[in-house]
Write a structure and sequence with these properties.
The model has no long low-confidence stretch (mean pLDDT 86). The strands form 3 sheets. The chain has a 5-stranded antiparallel beta sheet, covered by helices on one side. It has a 4-stranded antiparallel beta sheet with strand order 3-9-6-7. It has a two-stranded antiparallel sheet with strand order 4-11. Helices cover 35% and strands 33% of the residues. The protein folds into 2 domains: 3-143, Sandwich (Jelly Rolls); 144-176. The chain has helices spanning 3-9, 15-30, 133-140, 145-175, and strands at 45-50, 53-60, 65-67, 70-71, 75-81, 83-88, 92-97, 100-104, 110-114, 118-125, 141-142.
């Protein structure tokens, strides 16, 4: 399948269909001779840290197509330079022109085509001030939707457990 055809096919209003299309583009790119996966010299990353915050800046050359990982948490994004065609489950296909800021929901996975050279920044919560990049990536993203669903289920279980503990503590406190 040609890349132009892949780009044309990225139009839908159905979330399930959108997810399938994103995964199809990813599969196509993964099997393309010479394709790049993960961190590499073509898309250099700059990592910056502030108290409780991890900032990730990426340069993406004009003409490149990238499929991102699935982000676990809501986080801010900033397109600092360039024009990009983006496709997500929730937003469909849109053209974004810098400068632009946006909030990505948890579970977001994007396919993007760089119309021009891009500088894209994401900002992530880092309450333990971790500086080990692989550890930070494991905290911020997953590779598959199954992993994301498992993460969300575990988070929901933790939240329910905390709510139950708080309720029991409050009842005990009020009984005194």
């Amino acid at each position: 399948m040609e890349l132009e055809k892949q780009n044309e096919d990225l139009t839908t209003s159905d979330r399930g269909e959108a997810r399938s299309k994103i995964l199809a583009v990813e599969d196509y790119l993964m099997n393309l001779e010479g394709s790049l996966v993960g961190n590499n010299d073509r898309w250099p990353l700059k990592h910056s840290f502030s108290d409780g915050i991890y900032v990730r800046e990426m340069f993406i050359p004009k003409g490149d197509i990238i499929v991102g990982k699935i982000h676990k948490h809501e986080h801010p994004n900033f397109l600092m330079k360039g024009t990009v065609n983006v496709f997500t489950e929730g937003g469909g296909q849109e053209t974004i022109v810098a400068p632009c800021s946006m909030i990505s929901a948890g579970g977001t996975k994007r396919t993007l085509y760089a119309e021009t050279d891009l500088v894209w920044i994401t900002v992530h919560n880092n309450p333990d001030n971790i500086t080990d990049i692989p550890t930070l990536e494991n905290l911020a993203v997953v590779d598959t939707y199954d992993q994301y669903d498992n993460f969300k289920a575990l988070e929901e279980k933790k939240s329910k457990s905390l709510t139950t503990k708080l309720r029991k503590s409050l009842i005990k406190f009020l009984e005194v």
